[in-house]
UniProtKB/TrEMBL annotation:
Provenance organism: Shewanella benthica KT99
SUPFAM superfamilies: Ribokinase-like
KW ATP-binding (keyword) present: yes
GO cellular component: cytosol
Regions annotated as coiled coil: none
Protein name, UniProt field: hydroxymethylpyrimidine kinase
GO biological process: thiamine biosynthetic process; thiamine diphosphate biosynthetic process
GO MF term set: ATP binding; hydroxymethylpyrimidine kinase activity; phosphomethylpyrimidine kinase activity
Organism lineage: Bacteria, Pseudomonadati, Pseudomonadota, Gammaproteobacteria, Alteromonadales
EC class name: transferase
InterPro entries per UniProt: HMP/HMP-P_kinase_dom, PM/HMP-P_kinase-1, Ribokinase-like
Domain of life: Bacteria
PANTHER family tied to this protein: HYDROXYMETHYLPYRIMIDINE_PHOSPHOMETHYLPYRIMIDINE KINASE THI20-RELATED, PHOSPHOMETHYLPYRIMIDINE KINASE
NCBIfam families: HMP-P_kinase
EC annotation from Swiss-Prot or TrEMBL: 2.7.1.49
Length: 266
């Protein structure tokens, strides 16, 4: 499992969350860092994109030696990095690509420049087996208003289907008034609903990274898309449910990736 993403100095999201998730769900994690963030549970104070040459060398180093079955792609800070990652995905052709179009952190900080959204849509979406936007990210991808309820969430589906991508997992976690957290797995011809009880906790930092990394991990281990999403949703829900066992920072704390010695949710 390769994660291509930014580094979170607070350890709750990004590369750090991905490696924890992949390890906890039974995969072996390798990584390519695209940006270094100065970040903690209170927010993001700085972002430093890694020079393109070094992103490219990391990708070549991993793909040329390790048998990468699945790739999870997270934070890509600008159009140039997006294009480099897309070129290497086309060159090495891993079996599975899960793209978490990271644009907005849980804290509300913008993590992807507006100018890069079109590049993301044209260069990377066609290479992905699945993208996993939350509601603000899904709205940004189709240039729509952020939905405020499940009905307006469902109205996004037709436009999401027009994106050049195999499948979309639209995450409903931002509908905080709802009793359950409902995610919609959208294919061209069908929609599958994944529901989980909403957990009352302030410690939700890194949930999107965790979910997408878990999906990629389960795909790499041979599960089909529906089962991989189901298992990943279950793992993430349990990590959130156990999040208050951790006392990390003064803001949005991380989920508890290692809520058991080995998180076998199968």
């Amino acid at each position: 499992m390769l994660t291509i993403a930014g580094s979170d100095s607070g350890g709750g999201a990004g590369i750090q969350a991905d490696i924890k998730t992949i390890s906890a769900t039974g995969g072996y994690a390798c990584s390519v860092i695209t940006a270094i963030t100065a970040q903690n549970t209170l927010g993001v104070s700085a972002i430093f994109p890694i020079p393109l040459e070094h992103v490219e060398k990391q990708l070549d180093a991993v793909f040329s030696d390790l048998h990468v079955v699945a790739v999870k792609i997270g934070m890509l800070a600008d159009s140039d990095i997006i294009n480099v990652v897309a070129a290497k995905i086309r060159q090495y052709r891993p079996k599975f690509v899960v793209l978490d179009p990271v644009m907005v952190a849980t804290s509300g900080d913008l993590l992807l420049k507006q100018s890069a959204i079109d590049t993301l849509k044209s260069a990377l979406l066609p290479l992905a087996d699945l993208i996993t936007p939350n509601l603000p990210e899904g709205a940004a991808l189709i240039d729509a208003e952020i939905p405020s309820d499940e009905n307006s969430m469902n109205l996004m589906l037709d436009k999401l289907r027009q994106l050049d991508v195999n499948a979309v997992l639209l995450k409903g976690g931002h509908l905080e008034q709802a009793e359950t957290s409902n995610d919609l797995l959208v294919f061209a011809d069908r929609v599958t609903h994944f529901n989980a009880k909403r957990i009352d906790t302030n410690n939700t930092h890194g949930t999107g990274c965790t979910l997408s990394a878990a999906i990629a991990s389960y795909l790499a281990q041979g599960h089909d898309m529906l089962q991989a999403v189901k298992l990943a949703k279950q793992y993430t829900s349990l990590a959130i449910a156990h999040a208050d066992e951790l006392q990390i920072g003064h803001g949005h704390g991380p989920v508890n990736h290692f809520f058991t010695g080995h998180a076998d949710v199968r």
